[in-house]
Structures are given as structure tokens and as C-alpha cells.
Design brief:
The structure holds 2 protein chains of 2 kinds. Chain A has helices at 8-11, 15-34, 41-60, 78-104, 110-127, 132-150, 157-188, 193-200, 207-224, 232-239, 242-267, 272-295, 300-320, 324-351, 367-370, 372-386, 392-406, 410-436, 450-468, 471-480; strands spanning 67-69, 74-76. By secondary structure, chain A is mainly α. The radius of gyration of chain A is 22 Å and the shape is globular. In chain B, helix 1 (2-23) packs antiparallel against helix 2 and helix 2 packs antiparallel against helix 3. The chains are: A mainly alpha, B mainly alpha. At the A-B interface, helix 5 and helix 6 of A face helix 6 and helix 7 of B.
Amino acid sequence: MAEPTLTWAGVAPATPEIYLVMALCAVLLVEAFAGEKRRGLADTLTLVVLLVGALVSAVYGHVSERTTLFHGLYVADELGYVLKLAGFLIVAVTLVYSRAYLEQRDILRGEYGVLCLTALLGIFVLVSANNLITVYIGVELLALSVYALIAFDRESGVAAEAAMKYFVLSAIASGALLYGMSIIYGMTGSLDLDVIAARVGAGHASLGVIFGLVFIVVAVAFKLGAVPFHMWLPDVYHGAPTSVTLFISTVPQLAYFSLTFRLLAHGLAGVTAEWTQMLAPLAVLTLIVGNFVAIAQSNLKRMLAYSTIANVGFILLGFIAGTPAGYSAALYYTLVYVLVALGSFGVILLASRRGFEADSLDDYKGLYARDPLLAIVMLALMFSTAGVPPFIGFWAKLRIIQELWVTHHNALVIIAAAASVVGAFYYLRIVKLMYFDAPVTNAPKPAGHFGARVALGLNAAAVLGLGLVPGPLLDLCARILH
Amino acid sequence: MLVEVLFYVFATILIAAALAVIISKNPVHAALFLVLSFVTSAAIWLLIEAEFLAIVLVLVYVGAVMVLFLFVVMMLDIKVEEHRRGFTRYAWLGWITAVAVIVEIVGVVTARRFGVDITRGAAPWPASYSNTQALGSVLYTHYAYPFELAAVVLLVAIVAAIALTTRTRRGLKRQDINRQVNVQSTDRVRLVKSMDAKSP
């Protein structure tokens, strides 16, 4: 190992990670010395860090072709570039939405921003992982930060319960992931995903590899929240402070898309037929359970949690197509889902007050009369998730169904379409509550911070605008996964 | 020859210490026997030329983990007899585990008979070979990236532990040195006319 391994040219594509580590240490120091006196300073600084990070990685993080760094442990490619930029921006938006909410609950402390940044680092590590060790460290870095974020409001017993549930169940999933990885390592003799792909791709996958694959599929399904590994999801989404729910329902999805893509579609591409076969029943169950159980919910956070589960079913369907076009449809769906989830939980955050969580469906009755902006934004978002044409969600669903049709998964096409129809019911019910029902008398009048409302308006505009002009984003997704 | 003798000596001590861990009634004694078994395992690791791991085992497990463990055991004042009650109900589970482990050990020892020789040791390294250097060069060059990330994971653990447990309670009485120094006698003592002063 005579070659110098850590030259600047050799690590330049890893700029986002290096920058993020330095920046989070800086935020931590600022919080330690000035946090007591100036509440919210570290939060503002985190926001600046994220925006500068987006700029820095846009300029320095781009690579023209797939390159591996750090002895093959890290891969830099277009997918990573796009997902990291998206990660920076989405976390920034979540912080803008959460600010007022955190202030109202007296949990606006610098550690919140720091933990968001470390979670983002875990996401970046996962997005660029090219080795089973890197994958595992990324998963754990993200999960550990998220456990702490969920329990961040120490006064809330529900949040502590949610954190505990997530911690215990996630530990089991990590165990399954490690077990699968060790079996794959034993069978292929390498931790490097490129080498694993070459050895498994030889066409004679042994029973051992498939045995290991089962555990990896279980772990991936757990992380995504696919039925029957979804039990943690509604409780965690419901129990966590809404700002944290906003965080965990959006950015980590990018990482879990990448986890699925890098592990299954890249590393274990040789056994694509096997894992699509395993994912198919999971996806069908996920669509059915997610959509039907969501109807019965009276709490908006829980309903959106089941809606997340239903959306995960669609993302899995994209993978089941088993072609690069299918993966790009799944990527497009993931990005669209994240954009819509960002707005939906943002509305809940802005409708909440000190000592009042606007998370019951009744709280949204007659919202249009009280706060037209929030109602219009929510209308756009709900129409989008329901898949109503001018909005972006329509294209996402269409692309998935199109790819399934091309690859002759006709039964899945029918189930996906039927599930969308069921889903439309509870999304449109929200619209009905907001526009046609009389307001519940004692609901407080929403009045949020100006910046967050502008961001929310832009978010809804993006949902409509990208739906009217779907070309650029669709092309981007197709190009980076050719 | 000497190495074999040493191995059997250490192995005997290790097995005896491990047995003592589960047999001894006093939890403090059990913890001390666990220390003994760690130290003897470290000695056995030295025999197979894993010097660095042996030292780390002594430093980390004996030096840090077990000391903490002893603290906890001593502080908690565990009532052993209470925990013993109903213990024999699970004896059958213990027996099944014991039999399974014995079968596995026999399987490993007799593996040679099935053509798999896993008991043959590797050829010894030359005297100049440094176990520590070999580990270090892999860890800090090839795996530098996950190594640094592991450091961030530890940082997250620290931040999370502090964020979740430190409490700054409201109304907590604290010293403010500035105010203490600048205090005036009039702030502390208020002279009032006595009620009795009027009466005579």
C-alpha cells in the first residue's frame, strides 16, 4: 500500500461528507459556547450550513462518471450527487417548517440541528456505500440519530415510547441485515458490492446466497416500512414530535431507496429474479394494508403513516419491474413522495399551536374558512398523493404502472390501480373536511411564521409545477440510472 | 513443546475460572472470576501471536468494562436468593443448550475425520512480524473511511446521551459570582423599627 491514499484529488468527490462532518462539529461548538444565551442561534446556523452544503456539493461533488474512492468503500456517481443535493435541501426545508413548532414546545436546542446533520451524514454514507461495512455504518449512524430525535421532547411519554419501540425493533432489523451480510460474505468471500455483483452475477447463485438474500430483504423491508414489517411505523410517526415525524418520513426515504438499489439492484443483481419474487408479495400486502387501514384512522399523523406504507408499496413495485427503467420509476416516485410528505407534515406543523397538536382529522374541519393558504396547500398535496392528473403524484403512479406493464406484471398493475382508487378515498376525505364541513368551534386560528408559510407555498407550487412540466425530473431520473 | 504446556495450563485455568463464574454464589466473586478468565484468554491469544488483541482484551475488558461491572454489582446490592427462586424451572432449557454445545464441540474436534482439517494451526510468523502494525495499517489505510465514520457514531452517542438526559430545571438555585461580589449591605439587611420601641 505504497500509494498515497488520502490526496485531495482522491477524496474530492466525497466533499459533501467531509464538509458535513466539519460543519456539524462547528455547530456543536457554537451550541456549547453560545447556545444558552442565544436560543435558536444553532438552529439558524444549521440552516446556513445546509444551504452552503448544497452549494459546495453542487460545485465540488459532481463526477462525470462512476468512481470509487477509499479503496472501493465509497462510490461517487450521478445518483449519489442528485440524492445528496436533494438531502441538503430537504433537511433545510424541514428545519424551516419545524422552527416555530420547536419554539412552542421549548425544544429548540442546538442538539436538534446537530442530530439532523448526523442523520443526514448517515444518509449520505448510505447513498454512497459500495461496501457492506459502509452500508452498515450508514444504517446505524442514521438510526442512532433518529432514535435520539424521536425522544428529543423529554416531557412527552408517548415520544419516549415511540423511540423505545423503534430502537428495539430496529435493532432486530439490524441483526437481520448483519446476518444476511455475513452469509453473503461467506458465500462470495468479499464485502465489496462490485466484487459481490461479479461473483453472484456468474449465473449459478447458490442456495447460501439466496439464504443470505432473505435476511437482507427482511432488513430492507423493515427500513422501508413494508408489510409485514411495518408495525413500528404508525406508532413512531404518531408518537414522535411532528417536526421529527416530518424529518423521518422524508429524507431517510432517499437513503432507503439507495440502500435497496445498491444492495439488491447492484450488489445482488445476479439474483434479481429471486428478490423480485420475494418483494412481490410484500408489495401487494403493503398496498392493501396501507390503503385499507388508513381509512380507519382518525388521527392525521397516523393516517399519513399508513399513507407512507402505501407509497412504499409503489416504490417496491418499481423495483419489482427489475429493469433500470423500473428503478428510475421508483427513484422518481421516491422523490415525488418526499416532496409531498414534506408539505403534508408541514401543514400539520403550521396548524399546531403551543399546547395544541393539530393532528386529529376533526381539527381540519373548515380549515379553508380559517386559513385559506394551508387549505389550498393541503388540497394540492392530497390531490397529488391521490394521483389526480395535473399534480405530480399522477406521473409518479403512472410511471410505476407503465414499467410494470412493460415487464408483464399484469396482476400487479391491477392491484396497484385498485389500491390507488381505495387510497383516493381517504385523501379526498381530507379535502372534503377542509372545504365542506363546518369548523369545530374551539379550534384555534392558525397563524404561522412568515418564512415557513412562503416555503410551504413554494412546496405546493412545486407539486403542481412539476406535475404540469414533468419532463425534466423524469429525464433526470432516467439518465442517472440509465 | 513449551507452548503446548503453557496452552494446557492456561486452558485449565480458563475452564476452572469460567465454571467458577457461574457456580459462585457471591456476584462480586463471579465478576472477579470473569476477570481471571479474561486474563487467561488474553494469555492464550498471546500464544497464537495475536498480541494486540490480547493487550486490548486486558485493557478494555479487564481494565474498563469489568471495573464498571464490579461497581454496578456492588452498588446494586442484588439479593441473590430472591433471584434464585423458581430458577430450576428453566433447568431443562439449560440442559438442552448444554447438550447442543457439547455436540457442536465434538463435531468441531472430530471434523478432521470428515476431511476438513480446521485444527491445524497456521505457520508461525517470523520474529520481526508485528501484529499491531498489520492491524493498524489495514485499519488506517484501507478502512480509514468507515473508521472515521465510527468516530462520528460515537459522537452521536455522546450528543444524544447529553441531549436526552441533562436537565436544566427551572427555578434551580445557582451561584452568580458577580451578584455575590457586588452585593450591598442594604440588599441583605433591612432595619425595621421594633414594635416594642413605641410602647414604653
